[in-house]
Amino acid sequence: MREITRQTLEAYGYRVLLAADGVEAVTLYSKHQHDIALVLTDMRMPVMDGSTTIQVLMKMNPEVCIIAASGINSNNGVAKAAGTGVRQFLPKPYTAETILRALYHVLNEK
């Protein structure tokens, strides 16, 4: 899923950094924070889940733009993600069009 998303985003001109889990995502963000416009995270990841990853990223930068995705489509999950500062929530499976619209919306809402 990560690889397909990366290929799709790069095909539309986005530069992408991939992380295998939340710990790697936080490490990449700490090294490249000033070059990263948006974080797309899954809510269920190994090592450090999406909720914890989002909390750590928000402590590092309260203004970080985050889109969260999850295959567990529940109102509780959406509410929990929204409460953590997530700008948009994508239920999986999502299409290329859906993710591109979400990215455009979040990046242009400033």
Could you explain the architecture of this structure?
With about 110 residues, this protein is mostly helical. The protein has one domain: Response regulator (Rossmann fold). Helix content is about 50%, strand content about 10%. The protein has a three-stranded parallel beta sheet with strand order 1-2-3, sandwiched between helices. Strand 1 (about 40), helix 3 and strand 2 form a beta-alpha-beta unit. Helix 2 (about 20-30) runs parallel beside helix 3 (about 50-60).
Descriptors:
mainly alpha, 110 residues, 12% strand, 3-stranded parallel sheet, Rossmann fold, single chain
Short description:
This protein is mainly alpha-helical.
Largest sheet: 3 strands, parallel
* CATH C-level: Alpha Beta
Cα distance, first to last residue? Answer: 28 Å
Helix count from the secondary structure assignment: 5
- What strand order characterises the main sheet? 1-2-3
Chart the SSEs and their pairings.
Blueprint: H1 2-11, H2 22-32, E1 39-42, H3 50-60, E2 66-70, H4 75-83, E3 88-91, H5 96-107
Parallel strand pairs: 1-2, 2-3
